[in-house]
Structure formats: C-alpha cells, structure tokens
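To assess whether the prediction recovers the assembly geometry, we first specified each molecular entity separately, as shown.
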Amino acid sequence: MEERNPAQWRFGRRRMHSGPGETLLSALLGKGLPLLQRSIRLHRPRAPYCGVGDCTQCLVRVNGVPNVRACRYVPSPGDTVRTENSWPSPSYDLLGILDSLFRNGVDTLHGFRRPSWAAPLFHSVVRRLAGYGRRPEPVGVPTVPRGRSRKTPFLVVGAGPAGRQAASRLRKEGADVLLLDRDPIGDPPEGVQALASHEALFLPPPAGPQARYALLAAAPDGAAVTIAAERVILAPGAYDTSLWFPGNDRPGVMTAEGAWRFSGERDRPPFRRAVVFGGGERAGMLLDRFGTQVEAVVSPGAIDPDLVHRATALDIPLYPRTMIVEGRGRRRISSVRLASRGSGGKFSVRADAILLAHRRYPNAQLFFQAGASMRWRGSAAAYYPELGPTMETSVPGLFAAGEAAGFPDGVAAEGSGIAAAEAALGREAPVDRLPGRVAAEGRSEMEGYYRELLAFLGPHPKVVACACEDVLLSEIQTAHARGYAGIEVIKRYTGVGTGLCQGRYCLPEALLVLSILEARPPPEIGYITQRPPVRPVALGTLAGMELASAAPEVA
Amino acid sequence: MSVNQPRRTEFRVVVVGAGIVGLYTAYHLARAGAGPIAVVDRGFLSCGASGRNGGGVRQQWENPAMVRLAREAVHSYRRFGHEFGYNIWFRQGGYLFIADGPAEWERLRVVHRVVSSEGLPCRLLRPEELSRHVPGLNPGKAVGGTFLESDGTLFPFPAVWGVYEAVRRLGVEVLNFAEVSEVQREEGRVTGVVTSRGRLAAPAVVNAAGGWSADLARRAGLTVPNQATRHEILATEPLKPFLDPMVIRLRDGLYFSQTMRGEIVGGLTVPHPVGTGAGMPSSPQFLRAMAAALVDLLPFLAPLGVLRAWSGFYDDTPDGFPVIGEDPRLRGFFHANGFGGHGFMLAPASTRRVAQSVLGEKVDLDPAQFAPGRLLEAHEPLAREALQPG
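The predicted structure of the complete assembly is given in tokenized form:
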C-alpha cells in the first residue's frame, strides 16, 4: 500500500489517516469489522454488508452530509466523520431496547392509534425514530455542479468481461465507443473511450423508433453527465443476494462481494472463522481467497464436485442440502445454527461471519427503466431481459450482455459481449447459438429451500426481510394472512423494497417467499416497477443536469 | 384481492375504481344499507393515484364550498384510526403557501379572506416569517405567504387498506384486475358493466376511475371534458424530522413535505395533458426541474440523495372543481371524479355526497358547484378554482 500523502481526518474523536484512493471504510476496517449503524426502526446493530454502496449498513455523516456510504467514499484531508442514528454510539445504543420491546416489528399500521389525544406525541416520537441522518448542514455554500453532455454512436454500460469484449469488438470494427463503469476501469480496451467511476442512473425509453438514447450518469465530481447514444449495450452484471434466516442482519453476515472488498485493500479479512453459504463456483472462490479461515461450507443444495475437492484438500467440513436456521450472537455472529434439509437434524457451527455466495441476481434496473420486456428464468429465479433473435432487447437499439443478460460464467459472458457488439452493428448473432445461458425452465434450489425453511421456523420468526426499512418476515406473513397479495401490494403494505438499496436485498427473496405463501409461481407474484434512479443521487447533481442537447423530449 | 370470480353478478351499485374515492363511496353506500355493492378496478389495489400521491390534506381554497368539504375531510381523517383500525399518521403540521409576485400575493389574500370567513385560523405571513415555519428556507423573491396549521399530511396506503377492509367487512365485493370494457345502457338508463372478469348487472354505476374517468365515460357512450394529466413526484432518502408543514410555492407549483418515514416527498404541479394511453413514466426533465426548485428554496438539501421518482394521473376538469352527481344524459351513471389531484384529501367528505346522490337523497353541500351538468352546458367561461398546486 502506498503510504505517501496519507489523508488525515477525524472519525468522532479519533484521528485517522488513509492512503491515496483508500475508502473510508477500508481505513476503519483496520480494527476489524466496525459497527457504524443502528437500524432505522428497531435499532439493531448493523455492520458493513455489501461493500458496493448498496446496503444501508455503513452510512456515516461526513462534513455535515448524512447518509454517506463509507465503502464508496474516499476521505479528503480534514474531513469530519461521525456516526448517526445511535446514542451514545452504534456499539452501545440506548434505543437498542426497541428491538426487544417490538418482537414482531414496529406495527405502524395498527399501533399508535389510541388514545387519540396522544396522536401528536406519537407523531413526534415515531418521526424522530425514522430517518437515518439529521438534515444536511453542508460546510460552506453547497454548489450545484454544472452538468455535462456527450454524444456517442455506441455506449457500453459495465466494464466487466462482457462489456469489455463488446466495446473492444465494436472498436475493432472501427466504431466509436464509450465504455462506462461505476468503478475504475483498469486498462481499457485500446481505442475505447473510458468513462470510469461514473454511476449510470437513468435510461428513459427513447421518444420514438428513430430517437437516440440518453443515459443519465453521475461523475465522480458530482456532476450529472448525459450521454446521447444511438445504440446502447447494457452489461451491468449481477450481485450476491441476501438470505433470510433469524439473525440474518447481524454484524458478520455479509455478501461474498463484501467479504472480498472488506479484506481487499488491507489484505486482512474482518473475521476469524466464516461459514460460506453456497455450493458453486462463487463459494469456491471464497475458499481460494480465505482458505483455512473458512470454518464450513454450507449449501442449500448439492455441492459441486470441484468445490468438494477444494474443501477436502483444506480439511473444511461440507454440509450439502443444509439450511441456516439462525445466526446467533449479540453484537456479532458467534455461532451459526444449521438444519439438514429433509431430516431437519439441527447442529451448530462456531463462526463469526457468514459469507453469502449462494445466488446472484442480475442488475436489471436499466432494462426495466428503458421499457425492455423482462422474462422470468426459472433456473435462476430471476428476471432477465427478453432477447431474440439476436442480443437485442424488445426495445430497438438496446442490447444486453453478460451476467445481466443471463450469461453468468466468465467465458460465456465474454461471448455474449461479442455477440451483443455484432448485433449492435446490425449483423446476425443468434442468441440461441450462444453457450452458457441460464435456462428459462426449471426451478432454483432456493424455492424448495424457503419452503422447508418457512415450515421449520414456524409462525413468528424474527427474520429481517428488508434491512433498510427494518421490515420483518412476520410482517409480510401478516399482510398475506390479511388477504393482500402480489409483490406490488405487499411492497406498499409492508414497505419491503422501498429502502435505500432500492429493493436489491429483499425483493429477490420476497418473490420466492410470496410465491410459497400464495401458492403461485413467482412470475405471477409480479415484479416491482424499477423506478429511477438506479442508486440514490444528490439533488444538486440532478439540478445541474444538462438536457438540451442530449435528452429526448418527453411529452 | 385474489383473482377469483365474483360470488354474485347482480348488484344495486357497481363502483368503478378501487382507489380511495371508489372505496369510500362504497363504504358510505354500504353503511346506508344500499344493498349489494361491487367495486371493480383494472389493476391491483392502490395502483392508481391513491397509491401515488403526496398525502397532502389542506383546507386553504379560494372557493368556500371546497373549504367546507376539506374541513369535513380533515375531521374524518382525524378519526380514521378509530373508525377503520389503521393508523394513517395524519400529522397536522400545516400548509405553507408562498407567493413570489403581486398576482400570487393577491390570490393568497383572497384565499386568506375566504378561509378565515369559514372560521379557520389561516394566517397571512410576511417574507421574514416564512423561515419560522421552514428552517433554512431561502426566501428569494417571496413577498409573503399563508399558513393554516390544521392542514397536514397523511400516509395514503393505510387509508386505502383501512377502507378496503371495512367495505369487505360490510359485504362489499371488491374485484381487482377487472377492467371495464363497456357500461351497458338501455333506454337512457344504466343496466350494468362488462368487465374482463364477467358482466355485472346494476341499475347504478359510479365512475370513480380517477385519471381513467373520461375513458370510462366514453365506454358509457358519454363525452366529458375531464382530462388525464400526468404529474411526476419524487422521494429522497429519509432524514430525521426537520420540516413540519407542506410547503407550496405558487410560482412553479413546487410542493413538498417530509413524511413520517423521513423522506422529502414532492413534485411540481406542471401538468402534461397526455391521456392515460401514455403510461406513467418518469422524465429527466422533471428530475432536473424539481431538484433545481428544491435546492433553490432549501439550498442545504443539495447533497441529499433522491431515492426514487414516479408519476401518476390527475383527473382535471376545465374549472378545477370535482364532478359529483348523476350524469343528466344517462340515468344511473354517477360521477365521483375530476378531483384534479385532490381526490385523496377530499375523499371522506366528497364521497358522502356521491352516496347521497346515488341513494336519491338530498345532497347537503352546494350541489350546483360540483354538478356534472355545469361542465356540459357552460355558456360562458367557468369561474376557476385558483389554488391548484398541492
């Protein structure tokens, strides 16, 4: 690690320093997994979870600005960083008592009605409990960064294997290509213009068949960038989903991606012994990375022979067809309760972390926004854009590639990127000849898994379905019992899917669990309209947006 | 909400639209013992404007009949928790109207006079008094404002659930995912509706279809001047409470409030008269205009994240007043529409008049102001309700 010019800043009363480009969270991880947050309603302790700026578990206040994601923010010298929504600190928070008081969640729908004269008091108290941070008190006069606009014939969103291949193929054919990614793009393909660290936010449907696309993105300096493009290839990839079990929000539970990111920059994982949940390639990658710090591999279904081989070599026990039925521990996971599927035999494993590597869900938001028709693909239990006969979606000029298009494996993803580029050039590139696409038929292991888990847990499990808004699984069950059905209505009834992660970490599970409760296949439960922006974006960024030259006119 | 078949096919009243207006109408009818009632809707519960609005409830209007209707609605919403078992978090933090020019200021003075003469403690504010209600407010060119503390905001969803469950307890049949393709008529009278889930016979049909009310009237062979206009709205990341009132700036129709969950929810009352066929997309134009307006009024909000944006339909009328009562051209066809973005706030009171009209009772609140006939036989330009935003 480069230690020249470390930035000095304050975290509460502590003096901190971080290397160039190092994130706030990475600097804080030096002393192990930090507790930065208490949850919004129940004040449950929460520690960093996703590592990619989507969950609500590393929000801090920086220089008077609330809700800053520590995992994405690079401190500047002199920054003042504080925690919020806890007193006196996230480790010892007096309001933590709410968690024991409200065993079935805070029922704001039916509770706090009587006596009616107390309504103003209820309003005042409950309002104060809501919200993450206090109002912004930015240092100095906040500025509205002036937006920029760009034009390109071909725009590729996502610089993973598929996006890089697509951009590189387009370039080889002499086309001008812009390659955009929310993270730094290391070594961009030759001749391709790279827009690194730009967050794609909003891709409205084009105004007509001949109209250009206009993608709204946010640049690292906070300016809005509108990019007009004739053809767009979306390769936004996928993310690790969450898992529902009692204690699933306890500090120490994290996604596979989170585990990598948290140990990355300092090369010291924030756990001593972890349970890896998953039985495929992604679990294998965790084994390669963390080796003997993996205490056990637990899989919802069968375990890949290759993973069996790798685990056996490291002398790590394997538990195929096993459920996580509880994550125990107060401020941190200390043991994991497991139960065999089928037999129901229970046992425990001592561990201080659970790494979730069982399922990936496509980043489908931009497809939804652009109006592409989406199809449920049963084997992955997820919605993907409908393609065909080439890699073009149902919206003309919009193409899909990579994991978000249903090509999860690296080589297949690259192939899909090349095919998308060919299709964008107007050539024949039949999608059905491409290898490695997830099957439309079949059922995900997780459907049967949740059916067994629900039966095992009984009526009032304290499972946090939506960690952003502290919605419990029992609240979803209550809504179902009252006759409400379908994901759109359940969302409005319980608040599931309305938090800062935009539903990333609750909706995939909610679809499966609702399909079990309602005894209907998941596609009949529906999907939630994906609303812009893809990720929260500052009002100042939007206010400075440049529209005249790029955006299609909306009636 | 399951998609089963209706238990019966003959009703005394079929209400089209299971938003707050349709459900509340059914509630009043059922409580009056009107007989078998069905409520049908083209989508899921709360898919229309009832699930898309900002939850504002105000009594500041230029027209006394609107003030009375709104005052009664406020009274009902205060009792909602007792009556329906759901907490709608009706918080009376006030409505603050801001005028930036002499014409707007003059309009607010009229509103102040009308509201005060109805006995409500509406206050006229000087520019320097505005920031007392909204800390951090940049008064800009403001020349003054009005404030009424008993106005407020509520959480719309539980209101829908509460009335929905109440009407079901009263035996009302609520059919979701049942789109009406035709309102059937015989000799100038309504005889029933044909829906995607079968035909329902009824001598009375209530058009509570919100933005789709003109579409429904057409399916009854009637032309009405109602126009569906698309309006957009956004919500920010949740913050600890710092804003009590709903704030409305007349110049650009900017309105926003802080919900019980801590989000700033608001929009711009700039109508896009597009009709329902255009769907409900969000636009970058709105995001920019709304963000710029908010940051202009409250500069410290610039770093606050916008969480999501969505849109919905207002059902606008030429004079800005709702349409309540029987259509003079078709017996048994009743209007409960044209609320122009104020359907939710007026629902408990306005729907009582709809029910009275359906039951053939005397409508006890200035029926002429809201009668469907006024829009059909207007010889001269109609006097318009001036206070539309929010």
